[in-house]
Structures are given as C-alpha cells and as structure tokens.
Design goal:
It is a single chain. This protein is mainly alpha-helical and 125 residues long. 42% of the residues lie in helices and 0% in strands. Helix 1 packs across helix 3. The longest helix is centred in the first third of the chain and has 16 residues.
C-alpha cells in the first residue's frame, strides 16, 4: 500500500501570500522562476536562472527554499544582498514555512577574502 503524505502548499500559492505580505504585485516571471526552482530542488537537479531587475528573484528562490524539506544554502555575489536576505524584510515578515511558527535559522558566512578580519577590521568593535 503506498504511503499517503500531505502535499505542501503549491509554490505559487505561498509566493502569492509572500508577495502580498510585502505589499508587492505578482509577476509572471517570478512565478515561473519559483516554480522551476522548486521543481529542480525536488528532482535534485541543477538550474541556472537569468532574470532581470524587478523580476523578484529573492522571493523566487526563497519561497521554494523554505518549502524544501532539506537544508538550503544561498550564495550571493555581494555582502549587501546577504545581509538583506538574512536581516531584511524577507526574513522577518515572510520566510516562514506555512506549517511552522518558527523562522528558519539563517546566517551569513564570509569567504576567506571577504571576512571582516581579512579586510583589516577588528573583531568585537
């Protein structure tokens, strides 16, 4: 007898809720991106997405990530975007699984050349 599991909310539904919570508007490209990201994560395959300014890329990958049942690592090219994702409005207002009251655990990890100490900053200042 096959197992029956409760299906998670569709990515588009959760994305719509997240966009509304931020006061935004649904974008077709964002919905398409989030759906493709979710499918790639579920199938365990790589995906390369190119999306222009204003597409809504952050929620396009954060929503599928929060719905995924395994740990997800998001790498960014800039420290500003890392901090925006961890400390900004996405984290505090939106990025929670619909079936959980807890926010996901997050952190910023610096590469060797990007760490504050590598740039001459002092710790604990």
């Amino acid at each position: 007898m096959p197992e029956t599991a409760t299906a998670p909310a569709p990515v588009s539904e959760v994305l719509s809720t997240a966009v509304a919570a931020l006061g935004g508007q649904q974008r077709d490209g964002q919905v398409e991106m989030a759906t493709e990201v979710a499918e790639a994560m579920q199938e365990g395959r790589h995906l390369l997405v190119q999306a222009g300014t204003g597409t809504g890329k952050s929620l396009g990958y954060l929503v599928p990530a929060m719905l995924h049942d395994k740990r997800v690592v998001v790498a960014t090219a800039t420290l500003a975007l890392q901090h925006q994702l961890v400390e900004g409005r996405h984290q505090s207002r939106v990025c929670r699984r619909p079936d959980s009251r807890r926010a996901p655990s997050t952190g910023v990890v610096y590469g060797k050349r990007r760490s504050p100490t590598a740039r001459g900053a002092t710790m604990g200042a």
